[in-house]
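Budget justification, computational time. The allocation requested in the original proposal was used primarily to generate C-alpha cells for proteins on the priority list. As evidence of use, we reproduce two of the resulting records. The first is shown immediately below.
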Amino acid sequence: MNHLAHALLADPQPPQRLGNLFGDAVRGPLSRVDLPAGVLEGVRRHRQIDAMTDRHPASIRLRERFPRALRRYAGIVLDVAFDHYLIRRWPLFCDVDRESFTLEVYDVMHQNPALLPEPVRLAAPRMIARDFLNRCETMDGVMSVLASIDARLSQGFDVAAAGRTLEVHDGALEYGFTEVFSDLQRP
C-alpha cells in the first residue's frame, strides 16, 4: 500500500496515523528508534499492513501478471497503483469524502511536526503543497510516482513497461486491490 491507503488504514490518533503514514521512512529495528510510543505503534501497523498485503493471495496473483523482468518490482508498482484504485473506489471504503480526509491528514502533519520522522519533517511542507496523498488520482500521477521511485533505486526498472502492465490488466488489478483492501479493513 502507498501513502493514502496507509493513512486510511491507520488509527486516527495523530501519532499512530503519522507513524503508519510514514512507516517507510523509519529503518531498522524499532527498539533502536527514538520516536514517541504512538508513532512507533503506527510504524508497527505500517509494517503489518505491508506484510499482509505482500502475503495476500490476491497480491500474489497480481504480481504474476507482470512480465518476469518486472516481477522484482511488481510489489512496488502495485503499492502505488493501489492508491489509484483506492481513489477510484473511495466511497466503498470511507464515509468521509476524500478531500476532507486528506485535508485532515495534512492538518495533522502541519500541527505535529515533532511526530514526523526526520526526513519527512523536512519534506512535509513541500509534500502537502504538492498534495502527495492525491498524486495517484490519474494514471499520469501513478507514472510520475513510479518514475520518482525508479530514480531513487540503485538498479531501476522499466517504468514504461510497468505502465503498460497496469493498463493491460487494469480491471483485474482493481478487482484484486478491492479484495486486499477489504481484508485489511477488517478488524
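The second record produced under the same allocation is shown here.
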Amino acid sequence: MTFTLETVSGIRTRIFTLPDRPPFMIAADLAEIYGTRVDAITQAIRRNPERFPEDFIFTFTEAEMDLLKAQNVFSMKANRALQRGFTHAAAYGLSAVFKTPVAARVSVAVHRAFAAVDQRAIREVPLS
C-alpha cells in the first residue's frame, strides 16, 4: 500500500504522541493534508475561535519541543505556528472552515486516522 497524506495510513504516520498529551498533529502536516498554508490554518483558528476552543489545540513545553525536534518531527527553527499540537477535534474541525473539495475528502481520512490511533491505544492497555 502506498502511504500518502490522503490515505488513513499516510495520515496516521503524522499523528504523534507525548506523555500526558492526547494524540496530535502539527500545523505543517495539516496544511499539507488540507492543501493550504500554515498561516491559513493560524488565520482560520483566529477567525473561528468558537470552533477551536482551548482544549483542541495546545502549546508544547520547551521539553516537549526538544523531544519533538530530536525525533525530527520538525526543524530546530520551528516557528510559533509549529509549536502547537492539534488534537483530533482540531484537525477534523479544519474541514468546517476550509470549504474545498480536498478538505471534504481528507476530513474523513483524518477522522479515521485518529480513530485508528485510539483503537490501537485501547488494544495496548494491559488488563489488571
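A brief technical remark on that second record: The beta strands are 57-59, 84-86.
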